[in-house]
Amino acid sequence: MNDFAKLYSPISPSAGLDKMKRYEKFADEVAELIRTGVLAPGEKVPSVRHAGRTYGVSLSTVFQAYYLLESRGLIQARPRSGYYVREHAKKPLHELTTTHYPVDVSDVGVSELVFSVLKSLKDADTVPFGSAFPHPNLYPLARLARSLAQSAREMSGQAIMADMTEGNPDLRRQIALRYMVSGVMLPVEELVITNGAMEALNLCLQTVTRPGDLVAIEAPAFYATLQVLERLQLKAVEIPVHPREGIELDVLADCLAKLPIKACWFMSSLQNPLGATMTETKKQDLYALVEQYQTPLIEDDVYAELYFGKQPPRPIKSHDRNGLVMHCGSFSKSLAPGYRVGWVAGGRFSEQISRLKLMTTISPSVPAQAAIADYLQHGGYDRHLRKLRHALEMQQGTMLASAARHFPTSTRVTRPSGGYFLWFEFPEKVDSLKLLQLALAQGISLAPGPIFSATQRFRNCARLNHGHPWDSRSEKAMEILGRILKSF
Amino acid sequence: MNDFAKLYSPISPSAGLDKMKRYEKFADEVAELIRTGVLAPGEKVPSVRHAGRTYGVSLSTVFQAYYLLESRGLIQARPRSGYYVREHAKKPLHELTTTHYPVDVSDVGVSELVFSVLKSLKDADTVPFGSAFPHPNLYPLARLARSLAQSAREMSGQAIMADMTEGNPDLRRQIALRYMVSGVMLPVEELVITNGAMEALNLCLQTVTRPGDLVAIEAPAFYATLQVLERLQLKAVEIPVHPREGIELDVLADCLAKLPIKACWFMSSLQNPLGATMTETKKQDLYALVEQYQTPLIEDDVYAELYFGKQPPRPIKSHDRNGLVMHCGSFSKSLAPGYRVGWVAGGRFSEQISRLKLMTTISPSVPAQAAIADYLQHGGYDRHLRKLRHALEMQQGTMLASAARHFPTSTRVTRPSGGYFLWFEFPEKVDSLKLLQLALAQGISLAPGPIFSATQRFRNCARLNHGHPWDSRSEKAMEILGRILKSF
C-alpha cells in the first residue's frame, strides 16, 4: 500500500447527503494529496482501474475525477502510461520564512505612496498582477442579477425603511447560519451590516481607539490598514508574520506586556499579502493573549471562504467568550464584487459600531442586501465557492510554476492554502518600486513591498495576483518580470 | 381685472415642449397664487368659462385643472356656486419668526439624546409625525426595480470593478446634466458618488477640519449634523435661521470676523427643520462672505428637488468661482430611499474627498448606482418629481389646517415652500421632550426641538412630518396632540 493508499480513506456513505458529486469529492481528496506534497510532482497517480478497485468507487467516478483534476491543471496524462502529477512544481522556488525587523512604535505615512501606486495600476490594459481583486468573471454575476431583480420586485416600502437601520433580516439570519455551520454561535443582534468590510474595519477601529493610540498590526499588512491608521492618527506596532503560520505570538506577547496597545487588527486566515493561516491552536493562544490584556481584537476575515483545503478555517472569534473580538467579513471577494455588502460581528462593541454607522453612512444599499440574502437562500453559494476555490488553486499552481521557470532561483515565495495572492521575496538588490516602474513600462502591474509596511520595509518584495485567467500574455509577463529582476 | 387675472399670465406657446400637460401647468399656476396668498382662503376662483375666455385655454383644460386642484385639497366646489379656495387656511396659526439666542462656541453633546429619541420613533404602529422620511409609497419603487434588473443584467464584470473607484459614468453624467439645467456648469470629474448624502457630508467635514476646530451651523440644525460634529470633536457656532429666509447673514458675518471658523455647513434651500429657502440674492451674499474669509462651505442640499414653486431654487454652488463650495445631494429623498446613492460636487476638495472615501467605504453599491442612472435616462424622473411635490404640498396644507383646528392659538408655525416638515413653536410652558413621552404613550411620534440644537434649545418646539398620506388616524393624532399641548 503506497502513501496514496494509506492517506486516502474511502468515501463514507454519508457523502451523498452533501450536494457535491462523488467524483468531485474524490478529485478534491486527490488534490489535497498533491497540494500537501504526499503525491509529489512527476509521481504517477494510481491507474483508474487500480484506484477504483482499492477505494470501492466506480471506474467512471475515478475517470471523471481524473478528468477534472487534469482540467484543473494538477495532473496530466502521458500517452500509453497514465496520469502523472504535473511537473511544474518539480523545482519550485524556496518557501519564504519570516522577515524579522526590530519592533517599534511608528507613525504611519504611507498613504501618498499607496495612492500613487494604486493610480498606476488603473490602466485596464496592463497584465493585472498588481490588482487587489480576482477576475470578475469568476463570480455568478448573472445569477446575482436575477436575485437582485427578484428581491427588488418583492420588496415593500416599509421593508426598505426598516432595513436601513436594522439591516436586511434575511441577510442577517443567513450570515448567522453560516457562522453556526463553522462553529460560531452568534446572536443575530450582534451583526451589523456594512458597506463592505472596509467600512466595518473603519467603524471597529474608531470605536475602540482615539487619535494617538497604539494599534498592533501585521508586518507586512494590507496597505488599506495602514491608510486607515494614518487617517485616524493612530500609531502602528508592526508584529512580524510567519508566511505559513501567521503572527509571531511571542513578539505580540512581548508588545502587549510592554506597550499600551489599544487594539489589534489581524487577519487570522489567508492573511493579505502573505496568505498565512494560523493553526487552530495558535488562534486559541492568540485569543488567550488578548483576553489576558483585555485588548479588543479586530479580526479581518475577508478571505475566509477562499481556502483550498477540505475544512474552512475557524475564526479566532470562535474562541471569544468575552465579546472582545470584532469579526469582519464581506461578500466582495467570495460572491458579489461591487455590491458593497459586508458585516461585523461586533461582540460587546456592536451597539457602538451600529450607532457610528448610522452617523456616517446610515446604511448599505438595501436592494443589494436583499439580493445577497436571496442568493444565499436560493443561488447555490457553496457550489459557486467550490468552483471559485478550484479556479484559484489551479491558477496558483500555474503562477508558481511560471515563477520557478522565469524568476531568479534565489527568489523565495509563499505557499498559501487559499486566496489569490503570492508574495515574492526577490534577491536583496531588487528595488520593487523600481521594478514596478520598469514593469509598468512593459504593461505589467504588481504590488510593491513598501506599500505593505508602516515603515516602508519589504523593499525587495512584491505581491502578485493570480486570480485572473492564465493565458499566453500572463506567461509572457512573468518572463519579462524575470528578465527585469535579473537585471538588478 | 382682479388680482388673479393680473397675476396670471396666459400659457406661452412653448409650453407644449415640456412633457407636463397643459392643465397641470395651469393648475400649478393657480396653486402658486393660492400658496402665495394672492388668492386668499375663502375667495372665489374664476368660473371655468371666465378663466377659459381670459387666458385662452379650452374649457376642458380649466375644468381638468380645477379638478386636480380639488383633489390636491386646495380648492373646493360649492353647489351651484363654483370653486372656492379652501377654508382651512382661513384662520391659520401665526407664522414663526427667528428665535435669537446669544451666539457662542459650544461643544456638542446631543448624540445620546438623539439616539434615545430616534429609538422611541421606531415603532411601526405609531403615527409617524416624528419620521425623517416621507411615505415610501410616494416613490416609484416598482419602476426602480425594473431599472435595477435591467442594469444589473447588462453590467459587465469590468464595469463593476471600474465603477467602484470612479463611480458609474452614466450616473455622473446624468447628475452633471441636472446641474447644468439648474444653471451650474460642473466638470463631471468634480463629482464624487457616495453612500447617500450622509457619507458625503461626513467626508467633506473631515476633509476641511481637525478635532477642536470651529464649524458654523444653523440653529435649529438637522440633528445628524450635530452628531457628526460631536463624533469628530468639532465645536459648533450656531447661527440663527429665519424661518422663511434662512441664515441670519449679519450674525454669520460677525462670527466669521471674530472667530477662527474652519467650515460652514448650511442648507440653503428647504432647510431641515425650518424649511427656509434663501433668496437668490441672499445666496450670492452668503457666497461673497465665505469667499472673503476663504471659509469652505458645505452646502447640504438634499431637499433641493422638493420645492413647491415653479422654479427650482439654485444652490449657492452656482455662485462658486473658487471651488470653495462642496455641494452635497442625494436621491434618498427625491427618488430612491434605501438605495443609498448620493454625491458631492466637491470643488477644490474633490480629490481629497474621493481619497477619503476610498479609505473608508471604497464605493457605494455599484448596481444601485447603475439602476439610478438607468432610471434618470428612461424612468421619467421629472414626471415623478411633479407628482411627489404635489402630494407633499397638498399634505402640507392639510396638516396646517388641522393644526389650526386643534393646536393652541398662540402656536406659531413655519410655511415652507417645499419639503415635508413643519416646525411648530408652542406656548412657552410646553416641554417638547415631555410632549414626546405623552404623545408616544398615545401612539404618536414627533421630533422634539432640543435634538436640533447643540445647546439643547428649542424646548417648546417640535418638527412634524406631513409626508405620509393623511387619514382619519392623522387627524385624530393632531387632535390628541392639541389636547396634550393645552394641558401644559
UniProtKB/TrEMBL annotation, chains A, B:
Domain of life of the source: Bacteria
CDD domains from the UniProt entry: AAT_like, WHTH_GntR
GO molecular function, one term: pyridoxal phosphate binding
Record-linked SMART domains: HTH_GNTR (SM00345)
The entry's keywords: Aminotransferase, DNA-binding, Pyridoxal phosphate, Transcription, Transcription regulation, Transferase
Keyword Cell wall biogenesis/degradation assigned: no
Region forming the signal peptide: none
Span of domain HTH gntR-type: 20-88
Similarity annotation: In the C-terminal section; belongs to the class-I pyridoxal-phosphate-dependent aminotransferase family.
Record's protein name: Transcriptional regulator, GntR family
UniProt organism field: Pseudomonas borbori
Classification of source organism: Bacteria, Pseudomonadati, Pseudomonadota, Gammaproteobacteria, Pseudomonadales
